[in-house]
Amino acid sequence: MKAGSRSPRLTCIVAAAVAGLLATGTAAQERPDFSGHWTAAAEARPTPGGRGAPTGTMGSGWGSTITIAQDADTLTVEYVFFSRGDLQPPLEFTYPLDGTETQHTVMMGRGIQEQVSWTAWEGDTLVITTLHSFPDPDDGQPLTSEVKRKLSFEPSTRLASPPSLVVETTLSGVLGGPSSSNRTAYTKG
Asked: Which CATH superfamily is 33-188 part of?
């Protein structure tokens, strides 16, 4: 073999090694892991007398304390919805991270609520879109309401503190009402 020439086999080996390094670099850029036990930060809310008092928030729709488990394929959110006296277990929802549609049924109030959800990644933000089905109170015709939750991390403003889990929730307008959005920050622990 002449100096400076490469055999086809060596070229294939080098190409495979470069492809492996590129794949490893891509795999190193993993999605964030939202796993943990999270508690919403207290917020000041106005009271009828005009004074604010620290209270927990239900702004995400998941409550003030949530537990998230995540693996390569799914994200599971668990939270307490019912009071202790209701003797009901916490609600638990599992969402495939590949965008596959998932159906959940929940017994609420006077009947079963059906929900259809799917996920999508927007960079490092996980977006969970859920459609809630319910009957129109006037004519009984089926209606849907959309809830979109965007999960992301926000760096802490305190030195050496872990980042906050931020859940931005947007609820579509129902029965002619306006849509609404809110933001809930959770701390781990």
From this structure: Calycin beta-barrel core domain (2.40.128.20)
Q: Could you report the per-residue pLDDT of 48-65, keeping only the tens digit for each? A: 444 443 343 447 888 889
Closest CA to 37 of 78, 6, 2, 4: 78
User: 12 phi and psi, to 5 degrees?
Assistant: -65, -40
Q: What number of residues does the chain have?
A: 189
DSSP letter at 163 equals: P
Q: Which residue type sits at 188?
A: K
Cα atoms in the 13 Å half-sphere on the side-chain side of 178: 2
pTM greater than the 0.90 cutoff: no
Identify the CA nearest to 41 among candidates 189, 188, 185: 185
Q: Determine the average pLDDT of the residues in 106-128.
A: 88
CB 129 within 8 A of CB 123: no
Give me the residue spans of the domains in the chain.
Answer: 33-188
